[in-house]
Design goal:
8-stranded mixed β-sheet; single chain; Rossmann fold; about 240 residues; alpha/beta
């Protein structure tokens, strides 16, 4: 029987699905259009949590200078690139080789020195990282508890782990699958509602991995305003955790 150290959290069907989308990832009107619309909301939250955690000046244009950041499930680099511009030494890892090919080419065009790698979180051996991010990934992995345990392992003492993922509610099923995928706003087959985690389930996994949740916030959607941060976590949410002392 394989030990947890040998067990992969990658789902081959997910790799195959996202391989078909990789070439279009940076097209803001393409198959990843919703991620482009979501990214500013996630970045604003990350910047706020980074500034609060390290008591930084919010006017500083490079608040992550001198710090290492890891984006797990980085796709083609939508989050890695702004993290690099904020000053971090960024590593991005993704299970889909085609995503890493696209990410590397796009970063080269922008002259951004991002260390992109194909692989899974359990293969990472060069921890710790000051900031670990994982956006819209937990719902796609084979074993969420094991996956979150590996994320926690990669966070430096005094560091931050920031995640976002859909909530498992009737509202998220309606908006993300019935409407989102039904109207081709999101590629069909992207989501399996049964794999969504509630905030309490996510926090329980983090607590079991010796992490303390210090913030939760929802991401809501309004047709007239698009995605926005909200107290309502019924569709999607962000969560920040720190290692227990």
């Amino acid at each position: 029987m394989a030990s947890n150290a040998d067990k992969s959290t990658i789902r081959p069907d997910e790799v195959a699905h996202f391989s078909t989308l990789s070439a279009d990832w940076w097209n803001p009107r393409g198959s990843s259009a919703m991620l482009h619309k979501l990214n500013p909301v996630r970045l604003a939250y990350i910047r706020e949590r980074v500034d609060a955690h390290w008591s930084l000046d919010h006017h500083n244009i490079r608040p992550l200078a001198g710090r290492r950041a890891l984006d797990v499930g980085c796709g083609a680099g939508l989050l890695c690139e702004p993290l690099a511009r904020l000053g971090a030494a960024v590593t991005g890892i993704d299970a889909t080789p085609a995503n890493i090919t696209v990410a590397s080419a796009h970063a080269d065009k922008g002259r951004l020195p991002i260390d992109y790698r194909t692989g899974s979180v359990e293969t990472m051996t060069d921890a710790p990282y000051d900031l670990v991010t994982c956006m819209e990934v937990v719902e796609h992995v084979e074993d969420p508890a094991l996956f979150i345990g590996h994320l926690a392992r990669l966070v430096a003492p005094g560091g931050l782990l920031i995640l976002s993922t859909p909530n498992r509610t009737p509202l998220s099923r309606l908006t993300m699958i019935t409407i989102g995928e039904g109207l081709n706003l999101v590629p069909r087959g992207t989501h399996d509602w049964h794999r969504f985690l509630t905030p309490d389930e996510m926090e329980a996994h983090l607590t079991a991995s010796s992490m303390q949740v210090i913030d939760r916030e929802g991401i809501a959607f309004r047709p007239d305003r698009g995605f926005q941060r909200s107290p309502d976590m019924g569709i999607n949410y962000l969560m920040t955790a720190v290692p227990l002392a």
